[in-house]
Design goal:
This protein is α+β, with helices and mostly antiparallel strands. The chain contains 5 helices and 7 strands. Strands 1-2-3-4-5-7-6 form a 7-stranded mixed sheet. Strand 4, helix 3 and strand 5 form a beta-alpha-beta unit.
Length: 172
């Protein structure tokens, strides 16, 4: 990892009218599907079946929009230490999306900041993500380009080379 990965993340702006970041619940699955669908159709996210959002709802952080829909979501999956590879406990951020009406209002930064805090609580040594976009938000929060060989093996093996994703990581 580069020294850029060691910089502290900027603090999100505090908006007293903004809904807090919370853990998703199984009953949020349909809303997670609805929020993620346009991003999956555009190719920005991997297509996932609705059952994934039901079974893995606990992996998601969400922000509610004023109209009762979800403004944004971000998944965080923890991977245990792997004595075969020598990897310490690590996490992967996935399915990061903010609805079009909520973009530009700090929802993404709040989700990312909450994910970093949760990762520290879980004593993860590093976080990884893969993006087909510029990754600017991740880069502003201390992530840097990385090799998938440094990431959890199960996640790295699941990356689709046809998506041409950039792998980013951040030490915690």
């Amino acid at each position: 990892m580069t020294t850029a990965a060691l910089r502290p993340a900027p603090q999100p702006t505090r908006d007293s009218t903004a809904a807090p970041v919370r853990s998703a619940r199984r009953r949020d699955a349909a809303a997670l599907v609805a929020l993620s669908r346009p991003f999956a159709r555009s190719g920005a996210l991997r297509e996932r079946p609705g059952s994934f959002y039901v079974s893995d709802a606990a992996d998601f952080l969400v922000v509610d929009a004023p109209d009762g829909t979800l403004a944004g979501c971000l998944g965080l999956r923890a991977y245990a230490a792997d004595p075969l590879t020598g990897h310490q406990p690590m996490g992967v951020l996935f399915n990061f999306c903010v609805g079009s009406r909520s973009q530009g209002h700090g929802v993404g930064a709040r989700l990312l900041y909450a994910a970093l805090a949760r990762a520290r609580t879980l004593s993860l040594a590093a976080l990884f993500t893969a993006t087909t976009g510029t990754g600017d938000l991740f880069l502003r929060h201390g992530f840097a380009p990385a090799s998938s060989a440094q990431a959890p093996v199960a996640w790295a093996d699941s990356l689709d080379p046809r998506r041409n994703s950039t792998v980013l990581s951040r030490a915690l």
